From TrEMBL:
Disordered: annotated span: 1-67
Protein name per the record: Antitoxin
Biased composition (Basic and acidic residues): 1-49
Compositional bias per record (Polar residues), positions renumbered to this chain: 51-67
Length: 67
């Protein structure tokens, strides 16, 4: 079992909180580097959320209802 599989099992049912944690960590890195690497940090946040499966939850809440 890979580390990523173990992480996915640990956050199961708490995907929203995990996504918030990824965002908070990225914001902290941006603050410490004064935004110098913000594009790289944003890309890393997106990829980590995709791998953890937290991006589907967030997208569903932010998107307006489809008609």
């Amino acid at each position: 079992m890979s580390v990523m599989d173990k992480l996915k099992q640990m956050i199961k049912g708490h995907e929203e909180k995990a996504g918030q944690g990824v965002d908070k960590a990225g914001d902290m890195v941006d603050e410490k580097t004064q935004g110098k690497y913000s594009k790289h940090v944003d890309t890393a946040q997106e990829k980590l959320k995709q791998q953890l499966g937290t991006d589907q939850q967030a997208k569903g809440q932010d998107d307006p209802p489809q008609q």
